[in-house]
Design a protein that fits this description.
Elements: H1 2-22, H2 26-30, H3 40-51, H4 69-72, H5 76-84, H6 110-121, H7 145-150, E1 156-159, E2 163-165, E3 172-174, E4 177-179, E5 186-195, H8 198-203, E6 204-212, E7 234-242, E8 247-249, E9 254-258, E10 263-270, E11 277-279, E12 281-287, E13 296-304, E14 310-311, E15 316-324, E16 329-331, E17 333-338, E18 342-350, E19 356-362, E20 373-374, E21 382-383, E22 388-396, E23 411-412, E24 422-430, H9 433-442
Parallel strand pairs: 9-13
Antiparallel strand pairs: 1-12, 2-11, 3-10, 4-10, 5-8, 5-9, 5-12, 6-7, 6-10, 13-24, 14-23, 15-22, 16-21, 16-24, 17-20, 17-24, 18-19, 18-22
The protein binds heme C.
Heme C binds next to helix 5.
Length: 456
């Protein structure tokens, strides 16, 4: 059985090699639009407003603004290339495998891609200025995204000590400790994290906020990674920040408990960018109302596929990890974590009856984007006790990988960007057997296999 599904994922992984070249060709997208002319003002600007300007506007994270025609026109060819290969917007999950319902899905629809392709291929016409939609209003500063969502500022903002990264340096890991300013126990509903400044964003590779608190009553995290356990007072990771992952919202009736006297222990990975930059990392916390206690705790678990990373020069490797769920659990999201050689990652559930249920597959992993794919409440997989969570990771150490700094190097597991990792960050909520049974009795159909990995 195991050999069978390994082979099917291998086939899935290898098809990625051809994906950009074969599947998403411009004419295939353009053909569906018929003879209707496509212009910037009427057809393209509304798409850019909806899917691009969040990042592509002045003083935001992207290299150029895509607001006006004059700003966008010089980028037409690059835009076509990036949207057809589904590199932009940075949403790299395979649309044919596993769960497809996500919160905050920023991807383009096929029809939107077809519109952009047709616009570029017909010479990128401006169109009638009267068709131009009113400019979209953006909040004054780039504040907290969830503040917009919830309509109120965070209850707590916790800042790491400042760090100065010199212009030239080896990678650095900054691990200060910060007190959490609480006088009574409170439950966390959502967290958001970010570097303090736009300059800081450039040097911050990723940042972890571990929770250090003495909580003898806390149930143990049954699927903790070795590195998640750092002594009796380590309560696990509260949040991980990387470009493309900004926040975690816990599902209804789930959360994390913060106790007075606890601390955030930061683990911030900086890399030098040729300019001296000083910055901190900030964590915003939204709490449940006083006295309101969610039923379940959520744990951030790193499901690894990295026990024996041994990546020879000029090779593509495949590694597997198997993790038994010791209690029924809800998986809230999928966030592949790899470094420069990362190529693709799949996660699937091997149910106790042997059925294989594909969950998610990021086929076009790009190290610049650690996008977090958060399932909608009704789509998040609910798995019985004894399920094996199977993670498969592919690394590409050849010159075909544009992010590869040197295909002649052997690469193994390690912290530095030039070393490798391979794990899926997943928010796991363990539920009682009773709640699982209740769920299963109304969701029989969902346990059937789906997606191509189990179709054979
Ligand atoms: C989440 C933020 C974000 C969104 C949404 C986004 N982009 Fe980007 N884009 C970036 C960043 C950051 C870069 C530079 C890093 C990179 O290339 O990955 C970039 C790079 C690009 C580039 C390459 C520029 C170059 O230097 O060659 C193109 C073209 C592009 N984006 C087009 C788009 C289009 C079109 C959309 C919407 C359909 C979009 N992007 C949505 C953040 C974003």
């Amino acid at each position: 059985m195991i050999a069978r599904f390994q082979t099917s994922w291998r086939a899935a992984g290898m098809s990625v090699v051809a994906l950009g070249v074969l599947t998403f060709s411009g004419p295939a997208f353009g053909a569906s639009l018929g003879d209707k002319p496509v212009t910037f003002t009427k057809d393209v600007a509304p798409i850019f407003q909806e899917k691009c300007q969040n990042c592509h506007r002045k003083d935001s994270m992207a290299p150029m603004s895509l607001i006006t025609y004059v700003e966008s026109r010089p980028w037409a060819k690059a835009i076509e290339e990036r949207v057809v290969t589904r590199q932009m917007p940075p949403w790299h999950i395979d649309k044919t495998v596993g769960i497809q319902k996500f919160q905050y899905d920023m991807s383009l629809s096929d029809a939107q891609i077809a519109t952009i392709v047709k616009w570029v291929d017909s010479g990128s016409p401006a169109g009638d200025p009267k068709d131009m939609p009113a400019p979209k209003k953006w909040p004054e500063d780039d504040g907290w995204q969830l503040a917009r969502e919830y309509g109120r500022p965070p209850d707590l903002i916790i800042k790491s000590d400042l760090y100065t990264m010199p212009a030239q340096s080896q990678d650095q890991w900054w691990r200060p400790l910060t007190n959490i300013p609480l006088t009574e126990p409170r439950w966390v509903k959502a967290v958001e994290m970010k570097p303090g400044t736009a300059a800081g964003r450039r040097i911050t590779h990723h940042a972890l906020a571990h929770l250090v608190q003495h909580d003898p009553d806390a149930p143990e995290n049954p699927n903790a990674r070795g590195s998640d356990l750092r002594g009796p007072d380590e309560a696990g990771t509260l949040m991980e920040w990387a470009v493309g992952k900004n926040y975690d919202i816990y599902r209804p009736d789930t959360g994390k408990l913060l106790l007075p006297g606890s601390h955030i222990w930061w683990d911030i990975h900086y890399h030098a960018v040729g300019e001296k930059i000083t910055d901190d990392v900030q964590l915003a916390v939204w709490l449940y109302p006083k006295g309101e206690e969610p039923k379940y705790r959520t744990y951030l678990v790193g499901f690894g596929a990295e026990t024996r990373l041994d990546i020879a020069p000029n090779t593509i490797t495949e590694n597997h990890g198997y993790h038994v769920l010791k209690q029924p659990a809800i998986l809230g999201n999928f966030q592949p974590h790899m470094h420069l050689r990362g190529k693709a990652m799949a996660i699937e559930a091997i149910l106790p009856d042997g059925t294989i249920q594909p969950i998610s597959y990021v086929g076009a992993f790009n190290f610049n984007w650690m996008t977090n794919y958060i399932y909608t409440d009704d789509a998040a997989p609910v798995l019985p006790k004894g399920t094996i969570v199977h993670v498969t990771a592919w690394h590409d150490n050849t010159t075909a990988n544009k992010n590869n700094p040197d295909s002649r190097q052997w690469v193994g597991y390690g912290d530095r960007t030039v070393d490798e990792m391979a794990h899926a960050w997943v928010n796991v909520t363990y539920i009682s057997d009773e709640d699982y049974e209740k769920w299963a009795s109304t969701h029989k159909k969902d346990t059937a296999p789906r997606g191509r990995a189990s179709a054979q």
